[in-house]
Amino acid sequence: MDIAIAGGHGQVARRLERLLARDGHRARAIVRNPDHVADVEAAGAEPVVLDLEAVEGAGPLADAVRGADAVVFAAGAGPGSGPARKRTVDHGAAVKLIDAARAAGVDRYVMISTLGADRPDARGEAMRPYFEAKRDAEHALRATDLAWTIVRPGSLTDDPGTGRVRLADRLDGWGRVPRDDVAAVLAAVLVDGLLVRRTVELVAGDTPIAEALAALEADG
Q1: Residue span of the structural domain in which 211 resides
Q2: CATH number for the domain including 179?
Q3: Which residues are marked as active site?
């Protein structure tokens, strides 16, 4: 497969790139900062330098993803950014990728969102703009006719992946999950064409990833 990843220098994105490259797939890493090129190349991805915030119109981003089998939205404003930047990246860049995918004829779109995106009012004032941006990005994607999947992981950790998770359309409460396991779930969803037009929530658990995905597919 050929996968274009917006936010290709992110920690989950680079883990995903390594998994895709290991299994013989092509990953294009769309990055804003030229200084990040070496990092994504080391992960096995092909760098595409493009600032998602600055780009205007669908053209340049459509060119970056044209010919891909799928796009992944893994971008985020990150800790320390203010509400305005969370809006332009976590929501605005996701919408730009929707427009670019449509313009380039890429039907498959996988979004990394966050647990709690459907209830931003439950978050503290400082974090609410982030959850609101994720919620609105999800709404924009669901409103399309693309073959979308939205994955909402809990709090991300750098613990080694276990290959075991809890996956559900809706989880009770909060949870944590290693970035390794999030990347493994995304790789399986992309390569095996799973969970199309589904929103799923993900935390660490006891079920092997393949079994957890198969159970959700069966329930779909």
Answers
A1: 2-219
A2: 3.40.50.720
A3: 130
Residues 178-208 as b or e (16 or more Cβ within 10 Å = b): bbbbbbbbbbbbbbeebbeebbbbbbbbeee
Q: For the chain, how many structural domains are there in total?
A: 1
Bridge partner list, 29: 5, 47
- State if pTM tops 0.85: yes
pLDDT digits (tens, 9 = 90+) for 19-29: 999 999 999 99
